[in-house]
Write a sequence for this structure.
């Protein structure tokens, strides 16, 4: 690989092509799509890239983005969780009922709602991992059940409002107005990225594997810093750094560390790459599966609370099918593979930025929301086709790469046996 890079531009292109064959397309298509979408909408309406619209966009992405982040964990196993839309709505409804009707404090009501969703996710994972019921069937049944329970909790009115000055409402309404907040976050993110990249490069060099040069790390850090400080400058021109966006970034970054830098994260990737290999290596397959669905449920609950925070109201429309579809689309568009084993939590951030940018631009232009669904569906289809073509290229380039993933045939996909 170093020899390829020594050849200049041709070497870098060859290295990039080889990386696509082994690691997939990753986030590159989503980044290009985002740049194209922003360019087109800015040309059509000069208010699209205004500080106010971009600040609102940074808050709008959080609820669905959290749900999509939880789905990344499930998709890494090559599975799907169809209950996240219903779980997000049920969690928001449970919070509102406990707080408004039973007088429970907001922090305690939030903990109860999130804990309930985590337990529900763990239950889905247990039925899937221990009883061998396909994940889509388990979570589809759960979606129906949680929607029904949500309707029962809310009662005849179907809606319930909570304090618009309370803790949950402030999740999306509070901004850190002092310019230092946004700039400090940008500096911290840039610095941490540089230190992490240098540490990773040293470890790779010590193990004799391919490593990035100081120049490459500096160039990537400079690009990240430029984006981060530009975003901080834009946010400071409106109301400052939104609390919701800050929390979203911290959660995404924290979970990315868990996936890529901990033994648990390596187990998730290993299980998504090959179930039999992971089992033979001594991994507790059932425990990993249960934990992944518990993570998905937990983040669905957090996403539901952020979505409810925007209006300080919970209603039966808080958990429509569109939530589920958009969350899945965000994860896949951002670069997470439907076939398992490839993806990062940052995929959810990129994907939801694409989806919400389309929604924001079309709202500015006065285009009906129905057209947004059509466009989002088209972007999702392109992403799925690209994912399938990339997988086919990997299998062609490395014959038998996925042969252990489904040892029992189509019917044994990741859930046919128990452990």
């Amino acid at each position: 690989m170093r020899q390829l890079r020594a050849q200049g531009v041709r070497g870098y292109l060859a290295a990039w092509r080889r990386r696509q064959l082994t690691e997939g397309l990753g986030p590159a298509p989503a980044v290009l799509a985002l740049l194209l979408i922003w360019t087109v909408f800015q040309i059509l309406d000069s208010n699209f890239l205004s500080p106010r619209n971009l600040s609102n966009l940074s808050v709008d992405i959080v609820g669905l983005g959290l749900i999509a982040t939880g789905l990344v964990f499930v998709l890494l196993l090559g599975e799907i969780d169809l209950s996240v839309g219903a779980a997000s709505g049920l969690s928001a409804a449970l919070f509102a009922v406990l707080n408004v009707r039973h007088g429970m404090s907001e922090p305690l009501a939030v903990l109860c709602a999130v804990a309930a969703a985590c337990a529900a996710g763990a239950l889905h994972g247990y039925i899937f991992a221990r009883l061998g019921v396909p994940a889509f069937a388990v979570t589809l049944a759960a979606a129906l059940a949680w929607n029904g329970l949500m309707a029962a909790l809310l009662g005849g009115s179907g809606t319930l409002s909570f304090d618009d000055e309370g803790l949950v409402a402030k999740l999306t309404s509070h901004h850190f107005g002092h310019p230092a907040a946004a700039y400090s976050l940008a500096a911290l993110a840039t610095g941490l990225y540089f230190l992490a990249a240098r540490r990773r490069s040293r470890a790779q060099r010590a193990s004799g594997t391919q490593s990035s040069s100081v120049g490459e790390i500096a160039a990537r850090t400079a690009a990240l810093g430029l984006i981060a400080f530009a975003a901080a400058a834009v946010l400071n021109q409106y109301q400052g750094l939104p609390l919701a966006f800050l929390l979203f970034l911290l959660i995404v970054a924290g979970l990315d560390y868990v996936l890529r830098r901990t033994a648990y994260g390596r187990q998730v990737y290993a299980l998504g790459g090959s179930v039999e290999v992971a089992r033979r290596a001594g991994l507790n397959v059932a425990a990993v599966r249960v934990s992944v669905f518990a993570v998905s449920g937990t983040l669905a609950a957090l996403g539901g609370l952020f979505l409810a925070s925007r209006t300080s109201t919970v209603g039966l429309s808080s958990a429509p099918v569109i939530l589920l579809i958009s969350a899945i689309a965000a994860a896949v568009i951002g670069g997470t593979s439907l076939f398992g084993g490839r993806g990062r939590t940052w995929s959810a951030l990129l994907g939801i930025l694409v989806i919400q940018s389309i929604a924001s631009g079309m709202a500015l232009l006065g285009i009906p929301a129905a057209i947004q669904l059509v466009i989002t569906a088209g972007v999702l289809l392109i992403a799925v086709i690209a994912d399938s073509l990339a997988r086919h290229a990997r299998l062609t380039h490395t014959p038998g790469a996925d042969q252990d993933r489904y040892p029992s045939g189509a019917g044994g996909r990741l859930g046919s046996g128990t452990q």
